[in-house]
Design brief:
mainly alpha, single chain, 180 residues
Length: 180
């Protein structure tokens, strides 16, 4: 109706003109709307906001508990890793000590075997040297006997005897001059 009244009025409409009837009805409608919202909408709106606030608070509390648990697990994990590192270092140190000890044992065993082999080789060389000397002496005796038998078989004269004895003695001196 107020719109009709405005249309029926003869004065021209301006946006800056004040219409008290329109203001009155606008205030009445606004007040009625506020009253309806106050009675029906406001409690529902407050309840929804409070529910949402509680849900957000619960999520924040749960997030805080999760963060605390994560921090505790992280510290536990760090301690476990530190313990594992220390244990690994200890195992490495023990392994190195065992390896060094084994190395020293093997070196000592190798040195002992080398010394034993050297002593045995020297004994064998000495025994072979003795065998060679004995064989050489037997050969010298055999040669002496062969020379004596040739002397007995040949016609002996004093010059030939002397020459044979001198040759034999010189051959013995040459053999005797050899290192044993």
């Amino acid at each position: 109706m107020p719109v009709l009244r405005l249309l029926l009025q003869e004065e021209p409409f301006s946006p800056f003109s004040i219409n008290t009837g329109l203001i009155f009805w606008t205030v009445i409608v606004f007040g009625g709307l506020c009253l309806v919202l106050w009675r029906l909408g406001w409690p529902t709106l407050l309840k929804t906001v409070e529910d949402r606030e509680r849900r957000i608070q619960r999520q924040l509390d749960e997030a805080e508990r999760s963060r605390t648990e994560a921090a505790r697990l992280l510290e536990e994990h760090k301690r476990t890793i530190a313990g594992a590192k220390a244990e690994a270092q200890e195992m490495i140190a023990k392994a190195r000590a065992v390896a060094e000890k084994e190395r020293e044992t093997l070196l000592a065993k190798a040195r002992q075997e080398y010394d034993d082999l050297l002593v045995r080789a020297r004994k064998e060389i000495g025994a072979e040297q003795e065998k060679a000397i004995l064989a050489l002496r037997r050969e010298a005796v055999d040669l002496s006997i062969a020379a004596a038998s040739k002397l007995l078989q040949a016609k002996l004269d004093t010059d030939a005897n002397r020459r044979l004895v001198v040759e034999y003695l010189s051959s013995l001196e040459k053999e005797g001059a050899r290192p044993a």
